[in-house]
C-alpha cells in the first residue's frame, strides 16, 4: 500500500467519523445554547476560553516535540523512552496549570458564576491535555482513526448527558461537570487503544527532560504567542462587553474551532512524512508531497467557505436558536479566518518538519502584538465585529509568515492552479445554489456541493494519476 493510500484510508475514516461528530456537536451546541440562552452561553464561552488558555500553556510545545521525536526514533525502546518521559512532563505541567487556573481567575472581574464554573470544567482541561499528548503516537503509525473514534465516543456520551439535562433539568455547573466526566472516559478509552503501541508509565530521566526542553522551547514560545492571538479575543470581549455579546460571538467561534481541528488532525499524519523526506534530503519528494496537500486543502477549504456563505444565518438559527440570528454574519467573517487556519496549519507543520521553528518566533511575536493591540482598540468600540475582523486578519498574517519561512529554507514554489480552479468552481456553485435560497438548508448545500464537484471535474482539477495513486496504489 502506498503512503498516499495509507493517508487516504486514515483520512477517509477521520472524515467519516468527523462528519458524524460535527452533527453530534451541532446537536450538543443546540442543546447548550437553548438551555443557557445568550447570557448563560456567554458565561460558558468565557469559562471555556479561560481554561483553554491554560490548556495551551500546559502544552509547552510537547505535542509537536513528541511527534517529531518519535518520528525519528531508531527503535521501540527509544520510542518508549520518549513517550513516557514527555507524558510525565505533561502530567506535571497540567497539574501546575490547574493551580494557576484557580489563582488567576480571582484577578478577573468576572461574575461568581464564571469563577465557580471554571472549577467544574478543569477536569476537561486535564484529560484533554493528556489525550493530545498521546495522539502523537497514533499519528506516527497513521492510526488517527482510533483517535477520531475516541472523539466520537466522547461526543456521543456528552450529547446523551446534555439531552438528559435538557429533559430533566439543567444548570451551568452540571453541563461543565458532564464535560469533565466524558473527557475522563475518553482518556481511559484512548489508553486501551494505546496498549498495542507500548506500555505507558511515568519516567523521570531528567537528562532527557533537558534535551526535550532544549528542543521544544521554540515550540513552547510559539504556542504561547499563538495563544495570545487565538484566544485573547474572547477574553478581551468578556472583560469589555456583556455576557450576551460574548455568547453571540462564542456560538460561531465554536463552529470555527470544530472545523479548525481537521487540518491539525490531518497534518499530524503528514508531519512524519515531511520530516522523513527532509532528513533524507529528498527535496523533490518533499515539495511534491507538500503540493498534493496544498491542493487538497484548496479543494476542501473553498468548499467550506462558499457553503457557509450560502447558509450562515439560517444555519446559526438552526444550530443555536432564534436568539443567535446575529451570529450568522459573524460566522461569515470567521469562516474566512478558518480558511487561513487551514493553510496556516499546512505551512506551520512544514516549518516544524524542516526544523525552522525558531525562525517563526519573531513572526508569532509580531502577530501576537498586532492582535492584542487590535483587540484592545476595536473590541471596546465594535464588540464582536472588532474581534471577528481582527481574528481574520491575524490568521492570514500568520499564514503569510509561515509561507515566508518555508520558502526561505526550501525555495518551495506553490502551484496555485488547483486553488484558482477551486475558487472558480466554488463561485459558480455558490451563485447557482443561491437561487435555491428559499429551500431547505440541506437541499441548498447538496446542490452547491454537487455543482462544485461537477465543475471541478470539468476543469480537470485533479489528474487521473493522482487519483490512481490514492485509490489503487498497492
TrEMBL record:
Keywords: Cell membrane, Membrane, Transmembrane, Transmembrane helix. It is found in: Cell membrane. GO terms for cellular component: plasma membrane. Signal peptide: none annotated. CDD domains: MATE_Wzx_like. The keyword Nucleus does not apply. Pfam families: Polysacc_synt. The chain crosses the membrane at residues 12-31, 43-66, 87-110, 116-137, 149-168, 174-194, 219-240, 260-280, 292-310, 330-351, 363-382, 388-406, 418-436, 442-459. It is a multi-pass membrane protein. It comes from the Bacteria. This is Uncharacterized protein.
